[in-house]
Amino acid sequence: MNLLGMITFLLLIIAVDYFYFDRDRKRWGWLKCASRAKKAICISSILLLSIISYLGLSM
User: Fold this and answer.
1) 12-56 pLDDT, tens per residue?
2) What confidence score (pLDDT) does residue 37 get?
3) What integer pLDDT is reported at residue 20 of this predicted model?
4) Phi, psi (rounded to 5 degrees) for 8
5) What's the distance, CA 43 to chain centroid?
6) pTM for this predicted structure
7) Cβ(46)–Cβ(14) under 8 Å?
8) What span, in angstroms and rounded, lies between the C-alpha atoms of 6 and 25?
9) In this predicted structure, what is the pLDDT of residue 17?
10) Are the C-beta atoms of 27 and 52 separated by less than 8 Å?
């Protein structure tokens, strides 16, 4: 899988988990008091760590 496809896939999975699967806020509820900037930093960090671990495991 190319890098752009993998990043798109990870973004889609994180967005679906945040907006669709986590209805009662059990996994992402700790973010509800955070500002929009802090939410963006947190989700970006999760995405970056996912990309790094994927690339590390694929080598």
Assistant:
1) 888 887 777 766 767 777 777 889 898 889 888 888 888 888 888
2) 92
3) 77
4) -60, -45
5) 5
6) 0.60
7) yes
8) 26
9) 79
10) no
For the chain, the domains span 3-23+33-58
Q: Which of 51, 30, 52 is nearest to 42 (CA)?
A: 30
Tokens 């760590």 sit on residue: 49
CA Rg value for the chain: 13
Q: What is the DSSP string of 1-59?
A: --HHHHHHHHHHHHHHIIIII-TT-TTTGGGTTS-HHHHHHHHHHHHHHHHHHHHHHH-
Residue in the structure block whose two tokens are 């699967």: 21
In degrees and rounded to multiples of 5, residue 31 shows phi and psi of -90, -5
